[in-house]
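The authors assume throughout that readers already know how a fold can be written as discrete tokens. In essence, backbone conformation is discretised, so a fold becomes a row of integers matching the chain in length. A single example would do more here than another paragraph of explanation. For illustration, here is how one protein appears when written out as sequence plus structure tokens:

…
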Amino acid sequence: MSILELREITKNFGATAALAGVSLNVAKGEVHALIGENGAGKSTLMNVLSGAIRPDTGSILLKGRKYEPTNTLDARKNGITLIHQELMLAPHLSVAENILMGMEKTRFGWLDPRKLNELAGKVLVDFGHPDIQPSVPVGKLSVSAQQVVEICRAIAARSEVILMDEPTSSLPRRDVERLFEQIKKLKAAGISVVYISHFLEEIREIADSFTVLRDGVTVDSGKITDVTDAFLISKMVGRDVNDLFPQREALKDAQTVLSVQNMSAPPMLESASFELRRGEVFGIAGLMGSGRSSLIRALFGLEKADSGTVSIEGKPARLNAVPGNRITNGLGYVSEDRKIEGLGLTLSIADNITLTRYSACSKFGWLSRNKQDRQAADLIDDLTIKAPDTRQSVSQLSGGNQQKVTIARLIHQDAEILLLDEPTRGIDIGSKAQIYQTIAELAAKGKAILMVSSYLPELFGMCDKLAVMSRGRLSAPRPIAEWTPELVMQASIGAGTR
């Protein structure tokens, strides 16, 4: 029995058609996966369902009745709650106040903190997180703990349809498993979940059915067990993607361009030693909080190193240099957080791409807009960045296209050593394939690439060598052929190594 039906939903923003004819049918008590590339219209559709925006045309039925929410509170009252990809919490309020926002318990017209904490505490315990105290301000929690609070808020609302937009993007695997356990409980209670994820293995693990969007249109739907991953990918990108990871030639003897010995950067990084060669893709695996990002940030001068030595192109380099020095040394950096650190969101695509090497498009200290636009346009074409022109604000691009801009900046900078921290986090399959191809091409040109990733298939598909970070210590690097996913996990949790 259907609980939610959408028929030919459209939504235009000026000349841009975000939704151009979306139809969707969600059964009661099922997990329905909404799949598509960044920019396909998934988040816009979620905003329509949650009452944040109104569609231009089309109809929605909720439990057989016309559904036209006027705002998000109205949608919530009707039994639909959205968990956003970007956290939507009030950091100055407590965990309990965030979880029960709009459902607060009062006593004689006053908030009842004791009852509030008691109810929120029960939700947290049921979700497997008694460690999160209801009275603690949300702003003091880690990102993964804040994501747990966001999920618990939807659970507390007892909605009949819960919309989850990339809910696992900031969660470690153990919390992903707890979320899936909770989703199974929701299903058993007859609650439906519309689930957006770029990880097909997640979708296969949790979803019953699927709908694929491409360019704002429904292109296919059905039971998830009836289709292959290759079929889903081809529907998402509009073409066959037979090899997600490009073929690369075996690495021959090459010059060492970066040597790091006994580097420490307390409190996260205790010790790391490795060598990176020209034309090599060197992967670093490990759990969140293991010190992976601290290593890359310390190398680029964003965190203070306490001890160790660094050599670049065979010459000793300052241990604690500022990022400007590292750029001069030939290093380029992609942050794991493109919105906070990786991009100037209010700047244009051209400004972002040329930011670390304005000298290439200036003369006598004056920036040439024409030269800047030409250089940016070439990279937009090379990386198939979807944008009307070089002057569009980066904030208006989809996540996948924003990430391509960060990679385009390194290419424009002509960096010799690329430090990539989660280079494909939160982006679609098509954008991932493009970035993998670009990384392979850069390596073939002799660039040296150090890549941190939480996604093991990415590391095994792209890397020549791999090391694992555990509790702030980097393991000895080994050729990728000597690793298995099981060995990586054992090394990540320190089993048998300490």
In short: The radius of gyration is 24 Å. The domain at 256-492 is CATH 3.40.50.300 (Rossmann fold).
